[in-house]
Amino acid sequence: MQVTFKVTRYDRATGEKPRVQSYALDLPEGATILDGMMRIREEQDPTLAFRAACLRGVCGECTMRVNKSGKLACVTRVASIAKNNEVTVEPIRYIPVIKDLVFDMEAFLWRKIKAVEPWLKPNGGASDREHVLREEELAEVRKAMSCYMCGLCDEGCTVIAVDGGFLGPAALTKAYRFVFDPRDHARVERLRHLSEPKGMWDCTHCFEANGHCPRGINPTDRIFDLRDESIRRGVKSGAANQQVARHYDSFVASVKKSGWLDEGRLAIESEGWTNVAGLLELLPTAVKALQRGKLPMPYLHRSRPGAEQIRRIIERAEGKPS
Amino acid sequence: MPELIADVLVVGGGAAGMRAAIEARKQGAEVVLLSKVHPLRSHTITAHAGINGAPAGGAWQAHALDTVRAGDWLNDQDAVEVLCQEAPRAIIELDHMGALFNRDGQGHLDRRRLGGQSAPLACYVNDMTGHYILHVLYEQILKSAAKCCDEWFVTALLVDSGACRGVIALELLTGKLHALGARAVVLATGGGVRAYEPSTGSLGTTGDGVALAYRADVPLMDMEQVQFHPLGLGRNGGLASEATLGEGAHLFNKEGQRFAQAVAPGMAELAPRDLLVRAALAELEAGRGVDGALLLDARHLGKDRVMTRLPQTREVVKAFTGKDLAADPVPVRPIAHRLMGGIHTDLNGATPLPGLYAAGSCASTGAHGATRLGGNTLAEAVVFGRRAGTAAAAYAKTVAAPRGSDALLKDEERRIALALSKGKGGESDVRLREELGRLMMEKAGISRDAAGLQEAVRGVAALQGRYAQAGPRGPGGAFDGGLVAFLELGYTLEVAWAIAAAALARAESRGAHWRRDHPERNDAEWLRHTLVVRGAEGPRVEFRPVTVRQWRPERRAY
After folding, report:
1. Residue A223's closest CA among A131, A110, A144?
2. How far does the CA of residue B252 sit from the closest CA of chain A (Å)?
3. Does a structural domain hold residue B96?
4. Smallest Cβ distance to A138: which of B100, B235, B239?
């Protein structure tokens, strides 16, 4: 199979701008992208840098962006992805590159994994025998922990695209593994930590992580589950993230009171009545909305029909007698 | 002057290395875990099927007898006793660390049967057992605050005044060599099965630690014993996990016969791997294969069971063959899988070189004998990893900080610079590696004889000679993968030579070592280990008695 690899080259040590280099290859049928990269290094260009380990798509080491799509190079067949006998190979997005296809995973992912204190904080149990656990308690935790740490969900994340500080779907999936592990005692503490700025409430639920995960782990859903669990346990926000709690309280209070959302009040209460700087930030948006006749006026907000029923539903969900 | 970086320096970030590091930390040692790949990319991740240990209330002796029988009585039974007595505790410890083993209906650890097991012994997490153990151990490494040096590649051991006092290592990020001093060194670098082509080894399964110890004149034990796996998927070392057979999948020949029933009526596909592999080879040689392969059939398990218990295997099978494990028979053929032999250690991982310890797949305690029982690799890693960590930490307390000169560092710098200077225009090390893999497969593979093994020994020696004149193509420096591959080939050549020499010496058939010219096991002469020692002209084979305790040698039948 005749194919041209167009590989993005870069070296942090020189700092020169990335450039694309073309390599013409004759590869056997069934060859993978990694086979092609090996062949280039062995026969044409020994300076080409990349990583690989297991060679069978189970370790997450050889992540690359191939024809604009994040892939594990060792199990991506050239024939299945080449267009007009060409493939482009470049670093995954948003990651600091060290050299060619070798990335700074510490900066991109490992530091975030470490930030969720990724070890079990055991809630006891006799040390001379196993925990007695039902399969149903373990199945989802097990699925979350089947993550290869390949980084492809973070590469697809639309928040990381604009804020590299966001904890991101991979680290949150790692956190899920502890929050929902029946043997961990630190759930509430973990949820509080995850509720700090740049944590789980920064997710915009765009579902890209689900689409990018090569293993069907559905990181976006894990983030939803973490948030639900957080609310269930009364953790509305982290200490430095009170806006989330105010938003939550205002939302519930509004729906409970009038049966629907008082958007104007929500915006103000989320910032906080005494938060002058925050309220000022709302002003330009409010002015534009006013000009277009779309400004929700809190004092005009009226209860909708059936509000009483809605209140009872909420209270029942909250566990209060109706 | 080597910089003292640790009391205990662990080389290798797989299960054995991490378990050793965790234990040494617990003993209060300053620990550095040095690995040529990030620990989560270690070859442990490819151990799918399970980890053996007798169930609570069950007898460890049954596990031990299965281990000895699979090992064709070449096992050192004191090592087997340690493995089987301590494995249950090690598994429970993993459960407390947070491993997610499958449960039975009562919520206790479930177990599955793997090849060679008379009753279910293997705890498992679907078909990703190694993945979960590796990730859980890494969690504990982060908790322990052991220092990690990821992507450092060891080029030599620092040996001074008759003791190991650290390593010389290449920092891949910078391309610089460093002398790293330590009071004790634990090698946990995994196996060396990439001496064969094809093999199931990860890219880095090149026998680094085995060769490092050998070059420091530490003997290698049972190197002739090389395990092949029946479920290879062809190119690049793809493998269908033995978990498929444990879950009840069958192997068929072209005529639709379950050929394993003939060689092991009591166990069929759950016979030890060496028997299954020889049966498969016989089918293929008799022309009863389908396009040179046998068929793995999991269809009768039903889609649900395949999806829940074998999800990763299904992904791998799809990637390598295009087949759906739940819906299609999958073509499989034997493939080189692992070495039973390795660095000779005692039950605490100590080698004859003071200060040097080894654990896991690079080591040979004698526990495996002539064929490893499926599921014993992970058990070995955590049981003997812990022991090596304990022993290394205790030893470290007794020795002073390493001293010495930079002489070895300078030697290594010169050696690598010389190799780099030969790379341009010289012979390609990539071709040498391919030749080595083919040679070993053809002459020192599943079926062996004296003439072929002599060719293997001569062939590897010739390749060593050509290797000495070759060099990597790259410039050196940061992330020069070609340089690492070149240095790795140097290790693999040592391993291959030791395998061929030991296999030529053992003039009998036992376990995985199958000699066409000596088809019978011969306890009168060969109930002993081979020890390969480095000599001036290449490997020299010595022998050591096998430790037999309560399990007297019997005929091996299933």
Report:
1. A144
2. 25
3. no
4. B100
The answer to whether B273 is a known catalytic residue is yes
Residue B355 domain flag: no
Low pLDDT (below 70) residues in chain A: 298, 320-322
**Which residues contact residue A225 at a Cβ distance below 8 angstroms, ignoring those fewer than 6 apart?**
A176, A180
B223-264 pLDDT per residue, tens: 999 999 999 997 667 899 999 999 999 999 999 999 999 999
**What average pLDDT does chain A have?**
94
The closest alpha carbon to A112, from A92, A95, A91, belongs to: A95
Q: Do B202 and A99 touch (CB under 8 A)?
A: no
Distance, in Å, from the CA atom of A313 to the CA atom of A320, rounded to the nearest integer, reads 10
- Contact in structure between A31 and A5 (CB atoms under 8 Å): no
The span from the CA of B33 to the CA of A168, in Å, is: 27
Number of structural domains, chain B?
Answer: 2
Tell me the CATH number for domain A105-232.
1.10.1060.10
Chain pair A-B, CB pairs under 8 angstroms: 149
Distance (Å) of CA B170 to CA A62, B177, B357? 21, 4, 21
- Which range of residues forms the domain containing residue B446? 407-420+427-531
**Choosing among B26, B36, B103, B229, which should be mutated to test the A contact, i.e. which has the most A CBs within 10 A?**
B103
CA B388 to CA B23: how far, in whole Å?
A: 8
Q: Which of residues B283, B308, B334 is at a domain's end?
A: B334
Residues facing residue A70 across a β-bridge: A65
pLDDT category, B322, cuts 50, 70, 90? very high
Interface of A with B in 294-313 (CB under 8 A): none
**Fold type of domain A2-103:** Ubiquitin-like (UB roll) (3.10.20)
Domain ranges of chain A: 2-103, 105-232, 255-317
In tens, the pLDDT along B501-535 reads: 999 999 999 999 999 999 999 999 999 999 999 99
CATH number, domain with residue B243: 3.90.700.10
